[in-house]
Amino acid sequence: MTEQIEISNAEWEIMRVIWTLGHATSRQVIEVMKKKKAWKEATTKTLLRRLVAKKALVAKKEKRAFLYEPLIAEQATINAQLAQNFANICQMHQGKTLAYLVDNLTLTKADIELLQQKLTAKQLNAPLTLACDCIPSEVTSVSEHDCCTLENDV
């Protein structure tokens, strides 16, 4: 499925369990969420129903239980969510935001090597500066310097 699905933070928790297991019964998900978040059974069942309604999961009846399987791919869903989040940030702040993430995430040596390769390739065609894209210039008389300033607040 390639369309973007809006998933709440609580629904992300459910999806993470099912992506990790590949498929899971409602009982398995309920037990994990009880231990992980101290959620009540009804909360987990409600979230599972919502994810089925959103077509993020499929529920298959197996004997007396439902087996849930993802209909959306984990990495593609993560990528779409991050692209949406970064689309909401002024392009002048995206690089500093990415640097903040690099500083605050635990990365493997392989992750760091991949990032270095991507940044080296990206640097070949990177512009020297980026303009603020918050407000189109034809809409306002605010100068570029008054719109978004890059402060050392990271």
TrEMBL record:
Keyword tags: DNA-binding, Transcription, Transcription regulation
Keyword Transcription in record: yes
Entry-linked Pfam families: Penicillinase_R (PF03965)
Gene3D superfamilies: Winged helix-like DNA-binding domain superfamily/Winged helix DNA-binding domain
Family note: Belongs to the BlaI transcriptional regulatory family.
Database matches in NCBIfam families: CopY_TcrY (TIGR02698)
Protein name in the entry: CopY/TcrY family copper transport repressor
Organism name: Ligilactobacillus faecis
